Amino acid sequence: MISRRRFVQHAAVVASLAAAPAGGLPVFCGASAATRDGSAVLPDANRLKLYVALFDRRFAAARLFARAIGSHAIPLRAIDADVTDLWFSELHPGWKLHSLPVAGLTTYGPLFCLERLAWDHGMRVVHRTKHLAIRDDAIAAVPNTRGRPSKRAATELWAADAAAAIAGFPRSRARLAAASPAETAFAGAAVPVSAAGIPVAETAAVSASVTGEALRPGAGPEGALLYSWIIAPRVR
Amino acid sequence: MTTPPGVSAADFSAAIGKFIQAVGREWVFTSDEDVALYRDAFSPFQGEPEERVASAAVAPESVGQVQQIVRIANQYRIPLYPISTGRNLGYGGSAPAYSGSVVVDLKRMNRVIEVNEDNASALVEPGVSYFDLYRFIQERGLKVWVDVPDPGWGSLVGNALDRGGGYTRSQFRNHFDAHCGLEVVLPDGELMRTGMGAMPGAKTWQQYKSGFGPWIDGLFSQSNFGIVTKMGFWLMPEPEAFLTGTVSAAARDDLHLLVKMLNHLENGGITNGMPDLGSPLLGIQTIEEYARSMEDRPQPATDPELLALRDRAETGNHGPLEDYGRRKGLAYWTFNLKFYGPAKAIAAQWEYSKEKFSGIPGVRFAERQFHRLPLDAQQRQNVHWPEFGIPTLNMFSIGARSGTNPEPTHGHMWFSPIIPRSAEAVFEANKVFAAAARQFDLPVLRFSLPSCYWERAFIFIFGFPVSADIPTNRKNRAAFHQLIDIAAQHGWGEYRTAPAYQDAVMNVYSFNNHALRRFHETVKDALDPNGIISPGRYGIWPKHLRKT
Known about the structure:
heterodimer; A: alpha/beta; 7 helices; 16% strand; B: alpha+beta; five-stranded antiparallel β-sheet; four-stranded mixed β-sheet; 16 helices; 32% helix
């Protein structure tokens, strides 16, 4: 039991600890024709056409994700934790006119809000994957030793994969998706964490029910749970 | 597809067919996937059969369609559960109070019918959210504010009918008090307007509240006597300026005079914004503090001496903590007084307020914020938007899972007792609720300060976590019930609660052998003999479902 003011206060402190300086975002142009693992790339006509992709620029992992998804020629929108301004100025007016598919890599709060707001416009979350992000300095400080990729390099590979999963999401799968709003509030569901502490994609599909082991203390104090997601029109 | 209790599959199917005829197939939802959207995201019954769930949902777009739905429901005895937007998370969300009800989702009825700048009033449908009305006002450059709750994604009508609150001037913070006129579809499908709206052609529906004869608007708040389809509100004229003045005091017992003076100033209309209480020594931030930028926000105390002294203060030894505060320049209490109005006037009101507090030994004053309005983009960065009539979703962005917050809850239920506006009550309530937390093995409840949403009374709002763990939820539900009773034993009652606890809360409003509940039931039986509107909502059950 905690008072509402302490509840908000505690949450704000948590957010401040997770915050990292926002940096500029170099956006690569020119589409990548192949996935990193060499698997086949869907023709453009078969991919879900995304209106924009959001990213939380407080997180280095999200900025890398944005750079990677920018290379797929998807317009980007940056947020600082809170989605209110973007929702009010762009998404809500847009959604009132058209069911515009939107993707993102954010913490759970913006996804929680946008998922529920999207329901009113006939849209659903059709893709939801969890990742563990670490802070900028932690990523940058780890040297590349013993031939293993540095954490930054590993994160870039992860970002490329996460972006490819979004950019190449099949339109046909969005039509079939039936994501249940199983997750409830403030990212309460548990998530497995890689021993290396780098961002790890837990699932590659719509997560209808989220269970798993708890965030381990070994993940370090900087660990923050991020979600990559797609919201798209629901075809009944 | 779930069938409402006591309704045959054939009748339910026939009713669904008629709902489809009334509103169109596209707006009747019966698939599990669609109906699941109406689950309470913060239900304390997650994973248990007791979770209250809908059987279907229907989304009308007009008053006429609402009337048709009600008449069909009467024919087949289908329980309905109207929602405006269903976003009152922590108080039940969009899930029905009675499992198997058909949710009547009013989100499509989202027309802003009128905003009258000269009268500073609005008339809206239930699907209009605070964002919608704010957008309407901004796009037209109107000089009026809407008082918003936090978060602001819900419906004006829904929040007011649930008697929610906001953050601006006192006469607008109580959202039901700020309403002016209702339109209601009664349980038999009849359409009624209250106040001046009862007179055909009246020009003053949103100007004069009570009309003629008994003023019955309150019957439609926290109740199940009809479906409100239009609601008028008084809006706040945009003030010229805003000022926050901080009063700081060094001793624990100063709280008595602080509250007494605050009440005097607020009841007299001298300070007209929402008072905002904090304690630097105890680590309780004010709203003004947590709305600051990350860099400017007070950080949690790390001084081991202070942390130890706080623990001692919790056991009743306050002197050493007060001494520490004097040495370090930390106040025991800070009261932020808020003023809206002309710059010259609010400066004078603040000066007068300082005079009234000056009898407290060692009291200090600081002018914390002064803004000419409207706010510019830079000013917006460091203020609590709802205090300026700006809706926000920011609250959802600050509770994310992280290494320092590895087990965020799956949600919360608000336990919200109203207590007297006195320091004695604050101290007593802290003692009582801390003891209860220990007794029921709840997370430790450190000293808390109440909020001042309403005039004349304090309110404590405690969040009970909702977990994925069923035994934990059971334990917390049992504790919640115990706290309702413990609060009632001290004369404190909840202002609002989730459906899971509405019977229990109604049960403690028991003067004269539950005369109030019996009155509700008499009204219910007269207006809604088939018991189709929101059975069980706020503890009001129709005769056929009433427990003897």
